[in-house]
Amino acid sequence: MNEIVKIQSSHPSGRRLCIIDDCNFFSLAVKELSGAKYDDIAHIRLPVAGKCGLFPEMHYDAVIINLHYSISIQFSILRSLLRSCVRGKFKGPVIILTDMSANCIQVLLRLAGLPYVSGDNFYAIPSRLSPQQMKCALQDIITGSTELKPVTAQAFNLTPLRRASLMAMIEGVPEKQQARNQNCQIKSVYNLRHVVIQNLAGVSQHAFLCGAFTHRFSHYQENMAAC
Length: 227
Prior knowledge:
Blueprint: E1 3-7, E2 16-21, H1 26-33, E3 40-45, E4 62-66, H2 71-87, E5 94-97, H3 102-112, E6 122-125, H4 131-143, H5 160-170, H6 175-182, H7 186-200, H8 205-210, H9 215-218, H10 222-225
Parallel strand pairs: 2-3, 2-4, 4-5, 5-6
Antiparallel strand pairs: 1-3
């Protein structure tokens, strides 16, 4: 189980906020958000390696998660988060800090178990925003005054073959093994992986697997997130 730390604010408002991170983002988040009248800020601290167990049921007004690490670990974190949201019947905003594209995070959420009939409470904002922009973007989403659209606002679906290719990369299946599993040439596996990654992230396969995303997508909502 991941460590949970609670920090009490001096503003009794009844709002409960949960921040999920390995501490890199925690100090800034608490500093910027504790002045926004949250009387209960819970920090679920991820292990430094990024691997996480089951999260507790989400009984908060909002959840903020700083998503980084390799793509396989990010996927594992999203899967654990979705399971806890389902158990707790969580309906509040889930704010994901990430530099991947909206289509990419949407596909990962769907693969991780987000039902196609839900997801209108999941938002993504670039992690490279300035502190003031970050504060405004987070508070606007939490209070329901944001102009940002949920990551699922525009449906983006992969064909079964491309979905299988993406899952093989996430699960670390070597190209040769995937070629044997699909009874095809290894060149076809390479080509399909390249197409999938370019459509979702616009980076090399190595960068994608490492969770390193390009600046081209990192500012896709930056103007809307600015104060």
